[in-house]
Amino acid sequence: MNDRPNSGGERVVLVHINFPAGKMEEDLEEFKELAVSAGAEAVEIVTGTRRVPESKYFVGSGKAEEIRDAVSIKKADLVIFNHNLSPAQERNLERLIKCRVVDRTGLILDIFAQRARSFEGKLQVELAQLKHLATRLVRFWTHLERQRGGIGLRGPGETQLETDRRLIRNKIQVISGRLAKLRKQREMSRRARHKATVSTVALVGYTNAGKSTLFNRLTGSTVYVANQLFATLDPTLRRTDLAETGPIIIADTVGFIRHLPHHLVEAFHATLEEVSQADLLLQVVDAHDEQKDVHIEQVNQVLESIGAKDVPSFLVYNKIDLMQEHTSHIDRNEFGEIRRVSISAIENIGLDNLARAIGEMLGKTMAQKEVVLSPKEAKLRANLYARDAVLSEKIDEEGNYHLLIRMPRVELDKLFR
Fold first, then answer.
1. Are strands 246-252 and 236-242 parallel, antiparallel or unpaired?
2. Same structural domain for residues 408 and 276?
3. In terms of domains, do 212 and 274 share one?
4. Pair (345, 204) in one structural domain
5. What whole-number distance in Å separates Cα of residue 276 and Cα of residue 268?
6. Are 26 and 93 contained in the same domain?
7. Greater confidence, 301 or 133?
8. How far apart are CA 83 and CA 103, in angstroms?
9. Distance CA 204, CA 190 (A)
10. 62, 215, 229, 281: which one has the fewest Cβ atoms less than 10 Å from its Cβ?
11. CA–CA distance, 52 with 72 (Å, rounded to integer)
């Protein structure tokens, strides 16, 4: 039996508990959006307040009975908690409620499973699911024997649970090996880009901040865009040519979320390396969101956990068209460094300011220059063509190349001092 909800519109009771102490606090509105993104129909929302979780049911026995009654009255198929439950708590709740129970991590894993499109994305999601669900073996995973043949697999004296655990371990090893190969291929691609001096700019930010819309504007792509959490899961890279920078690579990445499950961060490590190895990060923020400061802090925590804390970055306040005053501008700190650029990707407002800011941060303000190369400098000429830096060329009677080139001023100064 597969123990995760599917996208079939299941009737769901949502459970959200407030913890005034702080670290375990979650957002109810975000939880509702997550449930909708998973395809759930929320028929009841049970809320409460506790100082600390209760060991048996996570909630108190009275609240657990309230959840059971809500499931019975509303004829719900599933209960989803906006918190991470231990395997024992899940089992105890299911015995009491007589209904499947999924925690916050299971919910997010389900959404990721629905969104994954690429081979790598599907492998990463499956790896995260295996690591999470391996702790919940008492109830399921017997389907793995059927996938692997069943009879003849079991070792002497093995119980069903031991067999399931061994099968999962083997499956984790196989998937990890495949992901390691893909990681090497990604690393080779990064080296090639670095060799060609093409900078990478990665879009990061809280989920549903508008990264994919901005990505499409900057690159002319048609990446899937939707007003839902985790609309983009698989990373997308496109080469583009901004007037202020010349050729660069723009990377669209998965949206972050508060308390992103550890298994997901671990499984998506290879993908997230695009962020940690980028030359510049644009942290896209929904400027209209009241929770934007909290979301910025959550994104910063994830960036620190993946080793991207020290990558140069600035904030991109998106969706300013939803605000009363929506003029685009570049904000700087007291040292004149770029701190924030205000834009609207969907309305095409302020993208010129954003391009200027990217160029400044990359140190790639473009410049043009006429140069003359002798026939002996054919290698340099070939290098300029490889960089797409040549705008026009003429050859004089003596075989000299008269080139009009355009490239980042820093690189131009290095080549022709």
1. antiparallel
2. no
3. yes
4. yes
5. 12
6. yes
7. 301
8. 6
9. 18
10. 62
11. 27
Find the domain containing 405 and state its range. 366-415
Is 209 found in the same domain as 350? yes
Pair of tokens at residue 207: 């989920």
Residues 229 and 342 in one domain: yes
- Counting the structural domains of the chain, the total is 4
Beta-sheet strand order (sheet of 246-252): 236-242, 246-252, 199-205, 280-286, 313-318, 338-342, 330-332
d(CA 101, CA 94): 6
Cα dihedral 39, 43, 49, 53, rounded to 10, equals -60
Classify the C-alpha dihedral 265-266-270-275 as positive or negative.
Answer: positive
Statement to judge: residues 165 and 304 lie in one domain: no
Q: In what order do the strands lie in the sheet with 401-408?
A: 366-373, 401-408, 390-395
Across the strands, what pairs with 42? 12
Q: Is 76 part of a structural domain of the chain?
A: yes
Query: Mean pLDDT over all residues of the chain?
Result: 82
User: Is the residue at 253 inside a domain?
Assistant: yes
Which range has the worst mean pLDDT, 40-44, 130-134, 147-151?
147-151
Q: Which of 118, 109, 126, 130 is nearest to 37 (CA)?
A: 109
Any idea which residue has 């792509």 for tokens? 221
Residue 127 lies in a domain: yes
Report pLDDT digits (tens) over 263-300.
677 666 656 777 888 889 999 999 999 889 989 998 89
Q: Which of 180, 206, 236 is the last residue of a domain?
A: 180
Distance separating alpha carbons of residues 30 and 35, to the nearest angstrom: 9
